[in-house]
Every structure is written in C-alpha cells, then in structure tokens.
C-alpha cells in the first residue's frame, strides 16, 4: 500500500467506482441510480448461454463462449500472477497494458512491428512490405484479438478466377472512407492530408464534428500551396499540392447541434452524416479539451479559444425514429444533392434500428464497432462501449434483407479496419463501403502513443501545439499507397474466392467458416452460426445497395419560395413574399437557404433581401439552417426544432391579432428551438418549450419564457428571457451570455450553477467601474446588449412585455440576472492577457 493508509485506500476505491458508475450512466443517458438499477443495458460477448441464463437471465449473447469454470480458471490465473514469485511483480501490480502497448502487457493489434511495416511500405510504395504488415495483422492463430481473426474462407467451395478478371483497384478504393476525426482532435496538417488523399482516389474523407475551413472548398489552382490557401499562421508544415487537388472533405458530419455546422458547410457536402452514436463514445456526444481549442479551432467552431467544447448527446433532439426522420428530411432540404448517412454503434438490436433508419429515408448507414476512438477521447471513453462490428453488421444485413429494405440503403462498416482481409470479411457480412481511421493516421505518421487527448502527440498528428505540428511527416501519397495496397489484397482474395465484381461478394456469408484447430482454452465454445446465417429470401430480393430513396422534396413549400425569390437569388433584388403555412409544411426556408449558400456562401445576402411573411401554424424545423439575408416572419406558432442550425437569417414569431390569451402564459414555439444555431436572430412573442437554445453558438434570441434545460451546452451568442424559466437552465453552458428577467427572485433555484455564475446586470457606468472591459461580452456593456435586443424584439413583434420593461427601464434593469459561464470569463481574461503581452 506504500504511504496510503487503509482509510485513504478505501476512499480512493469508492471515488473511483463512483466515477466509473457515473461514466457508464452518462454514456447511456441515464440520470438517476434508480433508473440504472435492473435496466440490463449490456450484452455478453463470449459467454455461454448456460452461464448467461443462470446468472444474467434475459441478456443477449450472440456468439456463445466460455462457462463458469473457465471464468474461475481465469480468476485463479490472475490471482496467481499477482501473488506469484515473479521478481518483476514483487513490489508492484502488473501494469496490464490495457490502453498503451506494454511488452509484458495485453496483446494489441497495433504493435511497434506492425506500425513500422505499414509506414515503411507506404513511404517506399513497397507492396511486399505491406504484405508483411498484413500477415502480422491477419495471422491470429495465436493472438485471438478479433472475432474475424477466428474466421476462415471456404476456399474449397470456390473456383478461383484470374486476377486480371477481378474488378480493378481504382474502383474498389472508391468504397473507402476515412473515419470521422475532427479538425481539432487532429491537426490541420493531418486533417487536410487525409482529405487530399481520399479525393485523389475517389473515396471520401470525413470532417468529424468540428466543422471545416471554408477556404478548403474550392479546387486547387496551379502554384497554390497549403499555406497560401489556408494562411501561413494556420499551417505549420507545408504539404505539396497538385493542380486540381481538393482539400474538401466530402462527408460532413452533423447532428443538429454539432460544431461549425452552417448552411454553407452543408451545401458543400457530398454526404451528410448524422452521428447518432460512435464506437468510442455512444451516447456521450463529442468533446474537445480546452487545451486543443486554439484560436483557429475556435474560429471554425464558432466558440472561444481555450474553452472545452462538449457537444450534446444525440438524445437531446432525437427521442424516436420520427425525430430522426425529421432530421434526415431537414438535411436533405439543406442539400438535396447530398446523400444522408446515419452512424450507429454495433449493439444488440442495431438491425432493427437500421431498418427504421432505412424507413426514415436515410440513403446510407454506418455500423461502427466498439474499438477505436477519436483524437480527443479520454481513456475512460474508449472501452466497453458497443460490440464488435462483426455482430452488428451481420444483424443489420440479415434484418434489412428479411424486411426487403437492403436495396434502398448503402451499408458501411467502421472500426479498426486494417487490411484487405478485413474488407473482404466486412463485405461478406453485408457492407457496401468501409471506413478506416487509425490505419490512415498510422500511414500519415501516427506511432500510437495514446496521448491524443493530452495535446502532446510527438509526431504532430493529434495535437494543436504548433511546435509539435511542425514534426508532421505525412504526405497524401502515403495514404493513397495504403488504400491501393488494401485494394490489391482485396483483389487477390476475390480471385481466390472466384468473385469478379465486388457487388457479388456482399452478403456471401456462405463462404465463411469458423477457423479449425483453435486451441486457446477460451475460444472453444464460440458459435458463429448466427453471424453466418443467410436469410432465406427469394433471389430477387436485393443483398446490396441498388436503389434510391424518395425524400419527397417535390412536395416542399420551398419549391414555390425559390421560384418567387429568383430576382433576389439571381440579382440581389429585394423580394417580399406572403403566403399561408400549415403544420404539414416541414423545414420551410431550408431549401431556399441552400440556394443562397450555394451562390453566396456564409456571407449570404444583405439583411432582409428575402422577406417571407407567413400566417398559420408552421410544421417542424421552421427556418432550419436559415441563411443570412432571409427573414421568416410568422403570424401564428411553430412546432419543434424551429431555427435549428440558424446560419445568419432572422426568425420572427408572434401570435395572431385575434389571439386573446397572454403571450407570457402560452407556448408559441416547440421544443429544441435554435439547437446548434451559429448566427442570426430570433424573436418569439410567447413561451418556448424545453431545451431552448441548446448548443447555441452565436445567435441572438429573445423569448418570453422557456421550459426546462434552457441554454444547455451553449457556447456563444446572447439569449434574453423576459418571462418564467424551467429547471436546469444553463447546464453545461461554456460560452455566450443569457439575461433572465427574475421578477420573483427565484431564478437561482432553476439554474444549474455547475458551470456558470449569476450576476446583476449593471448600468453601463457602473459596469465600467466594476468589471474590466476585457471581460465584457462582445466588448459591449450588458446594459447596451440587453436594451438593443429588447428594442429589436419590440420592433419586430410588438411585444407588450418588452414595451413594459423598456418603458420602466430603471425599475426592471436590476431585476435581470446575467448568466455568465465561468469558462468563458476565464478565456476572455486569458485572451486579454495574451493580447497585452503581444502588444508589449
């Protein structure tokens, strides 16, 4: 025990167990211990059915496995190792090597030898060296690391074909994508390197959830360099570019509140991916430590440098398959030319979810395996989450085929894909496409130090430290070579299997079998029959993606709006449109904004260029991703998700003049309003539902009351509430400010104080005397910001409450409470200190 006494050791143990329990609860979206008790939100991998039925009844166990005696044997072996006579462990416990590679520790797929072979092969363009790497990964006769390592091909049932007749590598690589690693979790050089490489081979790179620099959208011209395109202050290591190269990531990741999601960002995509879950952090949402939020990263994410960023878990706006269908519809309106993908984590029942995703009109679904993690995941997030992708992919393929849905949706598998053998097995289990993350990073120079979340990557891959980024040695050619090596290995296996076209390989689990002669004492009871099951369906039922979804965009109200707004879109002329709206009209204004973003980018049009006056009850996602220059003025009320991802436009909602109720007591807009808004304005003469302004990154909003969880996870902008608030206001709020009228003096009871301070709104002269101007939001006094927003609210909505407050300003100003995030205050102070130091 060393210097730790028994009491301290017990306290440490209880603390560790408590933190671990809360971590699991947060992953699953469970808030209270009683809800967790008996929930059985786990499944068994590698335990026998007899053991599960006796000790964990009702738990899924797809592949069978070891029983109670094998568990006892393993416990005895661990105890023997701890208390044995090994001199190295005489005064210490075994380090284990669960996360970082240790010579005596747990087995890892990424060994120093495997990393060295892969990097040498891609740098020297040596396919023979790649073969040596692939043998290290694929040969699992002794190291049983993955389920697929225990599979073998039924080559005795195949008639080989000449490799010349097999689909060429240049076609196969088009099925490859890089994983969703955000710019922020990895460096600018790494992120751009992957994008260039994937665009050269016709594959796709993924932005991750951190947004993308708009300077990367246009093709590269002759003579351009990375520094000349992005700026010398944003690039530490030059990457050689060719004329015609593209720096753009084709896959743009989003779930309503992800970072940096603007109308222009969506308009530049070829595929938009909704992250419902991922292998590393299902249910947690993303996170980026403050040390990795540089000024450049903060600019891309519309946040504050140095402030930790937490994007909300998807369950904040997706409670059901209908909500997911709505988000798919929103994103298809935001870019009708892009396919819409949904990322799911491999788990029991994922096939049923994938079937729902297909019925919700997604064009593409990704099944992510349990292993892996982004360049920002803390260690506590990258273990014991989800199941191996072999299980989830097989279930997805079987369920989609049985429900005759497989043809309408493309299936991708993602999670520690390393070799051509992995790709072939993925295809046999049902995948059309394949996502690679760690392997392309290794090809780019990653040496698997497992320090991604600490910002100390020594090879400049997963860091924002400019000194370390200068050590980045990756080149697009290295990544291109790797993917062609993988494709060549795929072709060799296809030739041995007698398969000429890749589509013919998809779903062919009849060509897989369990590896014979497995001698490991823990592998004997494994049963893969459910994974290898081929659904008994007629030959005409599709086994791979061969159809297109009908998103019903031809019925959208926006088609008429685009026609009427053509003078504004083509020539910038001011246009005013008046028409009724009904709650069947969903996502109004979004396709119109797509046309604006395509032609004019993030800057959009001058204010009020397109003004649309509606009357009636608007459907869901009214004004989602609304572009600058577009104003939607509604007499009536809106449904949920109004102003989602607001990108510079203005939304005004007020009740009909015939309404006789009190706006302060009546709901005028639904739940999850302004989720993930980037910029723009919104004014609601009435009360909003729950989760108002969740993950607001820069929009200004005035509302006359909110439900529970207002301003949750907010990172920027200004929100004014001139009415009652619900519980849990400002939970996770790290940026921006909120001003709440607290006439009853009870707001403190409704606010979550964990990350914010509550302060009075001072008169401007008093604020000058008590608070340094460096700590002022947007460099302006609270009084000036608050008055301006209230005056705008009165101007646009005719609000009686705003008029009452403004007419008696001296009386009401002291009743406002300023909600000021602690992290935002600290960051403003540090930015000011840095500016003074530079000026000196």
Description:
- With 840 residues, the protein is of the alpha/beta class.
- The chain is 32% helix and 16% strand.
- The strands form 6 sheets. The protein has a 10-stranded mixed beta sheet with strand order 15-16-17-18-20-22-23-24-26-25.
- β15, α22 (590-600) and β16 form a beta-alpha-beta unit.
Q: Low-confidence parts, pLDDT < 50 over ≥5 residues? A: none
Largest sheet: 10 strands, mixed
Separate helix tally: 28
Strand content: 15-25%
- Biggest β-sheet: strands ordered side by side in the sheet: 15-16-17-18-20-22-23-24-26-25
Structural class: alpha/beta
Distance between the termini: 52 Å
Short description:
This protein is α/β, with parallel strands linked by helices.
Strand-helix topology:
Blueprint lengths: L5 H22 L5 H4 L7 E4 L1 H7 L5 E6 L1 H16 L28 H13 L2 H12 L12 E3 L15 H4 L3 E5 L7 H14 L2 E3 L19 H5 L20 E4 L8 H5 L3 E5 L11 E2 L6 H7 L7 E2 L10 H14 L4 E7 L4 H10 L4 E5 L20 H14 L7 E5 L5 H9 L4 E4 L1 H6 L22 H4 L6 H22 L14 E3 L14 H4 L25 H7 L1 H6 L3 E7 L8 H11 L9 E8 L12 E8 L9 E8 L12 E3 L9 E6 L2 E2 L8 E7 L11 E7 L13 E7 L5 H4 L5 E5 L3 H7 L11 H16 L2 H8 L1 H4 L3 E6 H18 L1
